[in-house]
């Protein structure tokens, strides 16, 4: 089976493939942050730290044990989720900007600790051997990306997801309605960290080299930009934002040295003219219902929301 | 040796405090984490370096010119990137700030190149002075002196002048201040100008202290100064000064104790610990939950 899949992958030229894989990984990471920031409303500036925990865990598992890649992927996600929950428990008492700062500080600490540990090869970084799996990497990345999209979609509309949205919209009212805020926040943090860990694992095995310095503040900002650009809380928006920003460096390659300059300017420009993100505030169910000539049930709520 | 390390720490800490003041003032008024502030600090260092190295100016004149340039920069950035976003979500403003920061550091990279540049030796003649058995360089005295002077000046502006009063009123309650006839936009521009000029002075001083100015110096210094602002209680001016000094001293002490490879983590570890114990920072006011 592996060979036939490999031949499908070979049909796509390597450059396009690389962009596609980058987009796939970005979608997994951005979805994770969207659960924390978009759906639960907890601003996190340290998503790259969870990504690095996943990346290094999976690299060490591949180097030291003989686990197959699927188990590795799951395990590094779970370990990251555990770390996320353990850290989330004390710091989620903080609200708003204080939480953002705490996650930022935490991310810097993780980076420095990884830069000093022997098991992560200190500042030299780790070379990651190829994944132990017959299925080629690009296919794994896209299967995982699609699974995450489906998972987050279902989660968002479940009882759990609605509780998270209630916390985002009004914490005190949610508490008054009997929602255990602390527990839900930690769980949402764990889900987000799980996806970050999975994304980190994919990233490590696709690039085959990881360095703690790659997971700094700017990486967190990158992921946050994807979520905000697409529209907070919107899954279609996240996928869209992740696709645009993950591919942007390639599209802007023709202006080589001006690339980051344009990127920075673009962020400002988009925020000024579209502060809610490209797809923010658009409800796709509504659009479909309108298209077939029926009045969406949520229209009234949205009207009120806009005021 | 304790005194020696203490003075090293205070010199480093007062530069953090200078940058932290800009964060805290802007946050106090429009509740925005101005991530571009670290880049203004970097720009200030470059302008100062340019004045000293190319135009052969006196270091003090260079510092004043750097402060003036960054003042304009701060106001322009506010006008372009933050003012249109005043009514939208805070997260959009944050992303916009990050965009500005990426823009400015890339611009500096393109203009000045990737390698760190140093101030010429003639910029400020460094001598060692012996005080109570500790070796203090005149540079450290300059840094502590200039920072103290600027902070006193700021305290005077905020407490004694009319615009300072308007600043305090605006940070207390934005809408009521506007109703009372305060030109809120002017106050915000003024706050940005003030904060940016302090950051520029900090940039020139740090450039002298480490004898290195580079395009990416803003990021780490900005993050640490920001931690200092939060540590002291964000929105509080004395808090920023206290937080900066504490972080500077803690960092130098940590390095002296042999944890130099954890240098950058010390400030953040303290930050996280303080936030967990006292979420509003050392001198911050308690935020009331409103139903």
UniProtKB/TrEMBL annotation, chain A:
<dbReference type="GO" id="GO:0015803">
    <property type="term" value="P:branched-chain amino acid transport"/>
</dbReference>
<dbReference type="GO" id="GO:0005886">
    <property type="term" value="C:plasma membrane"/>
</dbReference>
<dbReference type="GO" id="GO:0015658">
    <property type="term" value="F:branched-chain amino acid transmembrane transporter activity"/>
</dbReference>
<keyword id="KW-0812">Transmembrane</keyword>
<dbReference type="InterPro" id="IPR001851">
    <property type="entry name" value="ABC_transp_permease"/>
</dbReference>
<dbReference type="InterPro" id="IPR043428">
    <property type="entry name" value="LivM-like"/>
</dbReference>
<feature type="transmembrane region" description="Helical">
    <location>
        <begin position="189"/>
        <end position="211"/>
    </location>
</feature>
<feature type="transmembrane region" description="Helical">
    <location>
        <begin position="73"/>
        <end position="91"/>
    </location>
</feature>
<keyword id="KW-0472">Membrane</keyword>
<feature type="transmembrane region" description="Helical">
    <location>
        <begin position="15"/>
        <end position="36"/>
    </location>
</feature>
<feature type="transmembrane region" description="Helical">
    <location>
        <begin position="98"/>
        <end position="115"/>
    </location>
</feature>
<protein>
    <submittedName>
        <fullName>Branched-chain amino acid ABC transporter, membrane protein</fullName>
    </submittedName>
</protein>
<keyword id="KW-1003">Cell membrane</keyword>
<feature type="transmembrane region" description="Helical">
    <location>
        <begin position="223"/>
        <end position="248"/>
    </location>
</feature>
<feature type="transmembrane region" description="Helical">
    <location>
        <begin position="260"/>
        <end position="279"/>
    </location>
</feature>
<keyword id="KW-1133">Transmembrane helix</keyword>
<dbReference type="Pfam" id="PF02653">
    <property type="entry name" value="BPD_transp_2"/>
</dbReference>
<feature type="transmembrane region" description="Helical">
    <location>
        <begin position="48"/>
        <end position="67"/>
    </location>
</feature>
<feature type="transmembrane region" description="Helical">
    <location>
        <begin position="135"/>
        <end position="155"/>
    </location>
</feature>
UniProtKB/TrEMBL annotation, chain B:
<feature type="transmembrane region" description="Helical">
    <location>
        <begin position="94"/>
        <end position="116"/>
    </location>
</feature>
<keyword id="KW-0812">Transmembrane</keyword>
<dbReference type="GO" id="GO:0005886">
    <property type="term" value="C:plasma membrane"/>
</dbReference>
<dbReference type="GO" id="GO:0015823">
    <property type="term" value="P:phenylalanine transport"/>
</dbReference>
<dbReference type="GO" id="GO:0015192">
    <property type="term" value="F:L-phenylalanine transmembrane transporter activity"/>
</dbReference>
<feature type="transmembrane region" description="Helical">
    <location>
        <begin position="63"/>
        <end position="82"/>
    </location>
</feature>
<keyword id="KW-1133">Transmembrane helix</keyword>
<dbReference type="GO" id="GO:0005304">
    <property type="term" value="F:L-valine transmembrane transporter activity"/>
</dbReference>
<dbReference type="GO" id="GO:0015190">
    <property type="term" value="F:L-leucine transmembrane transporter activity"/>
</dbReference>
<dbReference type="Pfam" id="PF02653">
    <property type="entry name" value="BPD_transp_2"/>
</dbReference>
<dbReference type="GO" id="GO:1903801">
    <property type="term" value="P:L-leucine import across plasma membrane"/>
</dbReference>
<keyword id="KW-0997">Cell inner membrane</keyword>
<dbReference type="GO" id="GO:0042941">
    <property type="term" value="P:D-alanine transmembrane transport"/>
</dbReference>
<dbReference type="GO" id="GO:1903806">
    <property type="term" value="P:L-isoleucine import across plasma membrane"/>
</dbReference>
<keyword id="KW-1003">Cell membrane</keyword>
<feature type="transmembrane region" description="Helical">
    <location>
        <begin position="265"/>
        <end position="284"/>
    </location>
</feature>
<dbReference type="GO" id="GO:0015188">
    <property type="term" value="F:L-isoleucine transmembrane transporter activity"/>
</dbReference>
<keyword id="KW-0029">Amino-acid transport</keyword>
<dbReference type="InterPro" id="IPR001851">
    <property type="entry name" value="ABC_transp_permease"/>
</dbReference>
<dbReference type="GO" id="GO:0015808">
    <property type="term" value="P:L-alanine transport"/>
</dbReference>
<feature type="transmembrane region" description="Helical">
    <location>
        <begin position="187"/>
        <end position="209"/>
    </location>
</feature>
<feature type="transmembrane region" description="Helical">
    <location>
        <begin position="6"/>
        <end position="33"/>
    </location>
</feature>
